[in-house]
Amino acid sequence: MSTDPADSDEDQEHLLVPLAAADAAALGSDGEHLAALLATALHGLALLRAGAAPTDDLATALSGTTALLERLEGLRDATVRQHAAQSGSYGSLAKATGVSRATAQSRRDTLLRKDPGELEHWATGTTG
Questions:
Q1: Is 113 helix (H, G, I), strand (E, B) or coil?
Q2: CA angle, 97 as apex, 127 and 114 as ends, to 5°?
Q3: CA-to-CA separations, 127 to 30, 89, 113, 121, in angstroms, rounded
Q4: CB contact burial 43-61 (16+ within 10 A = b; e otherwise)
Q5: What is the pLDDT of residue 48?
Q6: pTM score, two decimals?
């Protein structure tokens, strides 16, 4: 069994990720890359639920899941930074992230003390 969700398989089902044409155009190949990473993570989840997956398949799923998480963290950090730049409140940040206002304030303030990382630049389409 291959852990590469891009492998052609007649029995393969496809999930549709609804995305506006303008969003797809703005993302370019990054959208396809993220979709492939998500497919790898979902395949890993299916392997875990099926049980007794080969360790090589689990390692591939772990690699894809880790890469997806890293990009999502960059997206989250860039979004928090942009929220702060637009004078977003700690209360709205707390509500959006499901934490207390004090926790949201602490996390945002900690983030803002650091320069944007590579994956924040990736998320915003800028260079550092």
A1: coil
A2: 35
A3: 15, 27, 19, 6
A4: bbeebeeeeebeeebeebb
A5: 92
A6: 0.84
